[in-house]
Amino acid sequence: MLNLGVCPLKRVQIVFIASALAFFSSFTFAGDLPDLAKTPGRSRPGLTKKVICKIQWGKDERHVTAAMKREVFARYGYSGYDDPRCVSDAHGRTCEIDHLISRELGGADAVDNLWPQAYGSPWNAQMKDKLENRLNREMCGGAITLKQARDKLRGDWREAYKQYYGQPSE
To answer: Which of 99, 91, 92 lies closest to 117 in space, CA to CA?
Structure first.
């Protein structure tokens, strides 16, 4: 038995605290992952790999309206960009209404493809954006299929991030 140099009651308290810390550290911050019941994802019809790889992303038009953003916040029970779950980053940005299936992979500008993601959380919007660009390059380069790229975002995108970039530093 481990001797911590403390009485048995203190030992139980130490074990309880360590167990609680391990348990709660496995939780995600609000917005790290979309709720698939609220955001099942949707792709734009007719966008094949060939078409997607020809588009200059960032120079095309984005069609997410203010009304759509309000509806997404409402679906998730957020009050808006000032909701406490919209953790701000060093630049004061709070939340991004993000695409589950990214536009770079043919994701639709539709409410059921959108979710609020914080900029200041450990698994933040900038990291997901970086992954989305990488998945587009991987897909256009032939390393993965369009379906595989989309599936990496539909699943736990953090695992795909770790696959390409490793565990992020805190």
So the answer is: 99
Q: How many residues does the chain have?
A: 170
pLDDT band at 126 (very low <50, low <70, confident <90, very high): very high
Q: Which residues pair with 118 in a beta bridge?
A: 95
Residues with Cβ < 8 Å from 88, sequence gap 6 or more? 94, 118, 119, 120
Q: How would you label 10-48 residue by residue, b for 16+ Cβ within 10 Å and e otherwise?
A: eeeeeeeeeeeeeeeeeeeebbbbbeeeebebbbbeebe
| Whole-prediction pTM | 0.79
Backbone torsions φ then ψ of 41, nearest 5 degrees: 95, 145
CB of 158 within 8 A of CB of 122? Answer: no
pLDDT band at 125; cut points 50, 70, 90: very high
Q: Going by C-beta distance under 8 Å and a sequence separation of 6 or more, which residues neighbour residue 58?
A: none
**How many Cα atoms are found within 13 Å in the side-chain-facing hemisphere of 161?**
22
